[in-house]
Design goal:
The protein has nine helices and no strands. By secondary structure, it is an all-alpha fold. The protein is flat.
Length: about 220
């Protein structure tokens, strides 16, 4: 079993002591969560792993919940929203955002719960929300409806990522799907064998965007 006291391989290079920052601590916390899981994380372990006073994180974050807000912001930053196709149709912009959000979360399966259980209120996130609503409004979607669309897509994407992350982290081992040579093998099991984990995401996303586009039109 991997010890959880030492720094994981993905830990970012530490800054000099006078420049310990909120962003570095959030990135280091995310690396620890990736390496050891959310349940084994603590503020004290973070301080020890980065080589500072175990309580140093409290000088930048009031408590662990505030630090997790920072972790969620770090995940959002990883989406790289500035390179999304902002000049294209809003449906393609929304599609690419959802795909990037899903991929980002699934690179950090232990941290999906952190992102899913808190609003991301960083300036970058708020600016992205405003840009999204402005884009939809310019294409004829009222702001309130645009916000509803945005929320539906986010909840679908985050919920999907959480379901896939849980499966990858061990839930799949508890599957009781019958084998093809079993008398219990039925149409549902056959269909499940013909699919791959998560390959329904784009089907659902396409259907949602088509429905939203039809309604907006």
């Amino acid at each position: 079993m991997t010890a959880d006291a030492g720094p994981p391989s993905g830990l970012p290079e530490p800054p000099t002591r006078p420049t310990l920052t909120r962003e570095y601590l959030a990135a280091a916390a995310l690396a620890l969560i990736d390496a050891h899981g959310l349940r084994k994380f603590s503020m004290r372990k973070l301080g020890t792993a980065v080589g500072f006073d175990p309580m140093a994180a409290y000088r930048h974050y009031d408590d662990q919940e505030a630090l997790f807000d920072g972790v969620a912001e770090a995940l959002f930053t990883e989406i790289d929203v500035d390179t999304l196709p902002w000049d294209g149709p809003w449906q393609e912009l929304a599609r690419q955002y959802c795909l990037r959000l899903r991929d980002t979360l699934l690179r950090h399966p232990h941290a999906v719960q952190v992102f899913a259980t808190r609003p991301v209120r960083s300036p970058a996130s708020i600016d992205t929300g405003v840009r999204m609503l402005t884009k939809l409004h310019a294409e004829g979607v009222p702001p309130a409806d645009a916000l509803r669309v945005s929320r539906c897509l986010r909840e679908f994407t985050v919920g999907h990522a959480m379901a896939i992350a849980v499966t990858r982290l061990g839930a799949e081992r508890r599957s009781r799907r019958p084998r093809p040579d079993s008398p219990d093998y039925n149409l549902l099991a056959e269909a499940a064998d013909a699919t791959a984990l998560g390959d329904h995401f784009e089907t659902g996303l396409t259907a949602m965007l088509h429905g939203f586009g039809h309604s907006a039109g």
